[in-house]
Amino acid sequence: MGKMLGGEEEKDPDAQKKEEERQEALRQQEEERKAKYAKMEAERENIRQGIRDKYGIKKKEEKEAEAAAAMEQASEGSLTRPKKAVPTGCGDEEEEESIVDTVMKFIPAPLMDMFNKK
């Protein structure tokens, strides 16, 4: 109340010691919390690895590393960047003809005669 009236703040002789203890307690709680979550994450990773082993799944990091190694190995000795793979169904003329043949099978006979006259 002394501070509100313009007087000097009352100082507790043990205030600094209490503050240090409080800060230490907070640090200790934070370390315990981090250790707890690190332990939980390690357990989860063990479970994930078990599932990956069981079903033959690779980690994303492993997949990316293998893909990068494959790209580097493919482009080794080349002056240009490697060509991108063409997805199936894009640019294959033989496949386009087979699609037309498939569509033609479902067209009724009178319409088919109109196409054949041309």
TrEMBL record:
Domain of life assignment: Eukaryota
Keywords for this protein: Coiled coil, Cytoplasm, Exocytosis, Neurotransmitter transport, Synapse, Transport
Classification via InterPro entries: Synaphin
Any one Pfam family match given in the protein's UniProt record, by short name: Synaphin
Subunit details: Binds to the SNARE core complex containing SNAP25, VAMP2 and STX1A.
PANTHER family: COMPLEXIN, COMPLEXIN-1
Region (Disordered): 1-45, 63-97
Lineage, opening ranks: Eukaryota, Metazoa, Chordata, Craniata, Vertebrata
Biased composition (Basic and acidic residues): 13-45
Main localisation: cytoplasm
Family, per entry: Belongs to the complexin/synaphin family.
Species annotation: Ataeniobius toweri
Name of the molecule in the record: Complexin-1
Cellular localisation: Cytoplasm, Cytosol; Synapse
Gene3D superfamilies: Single Helix bin
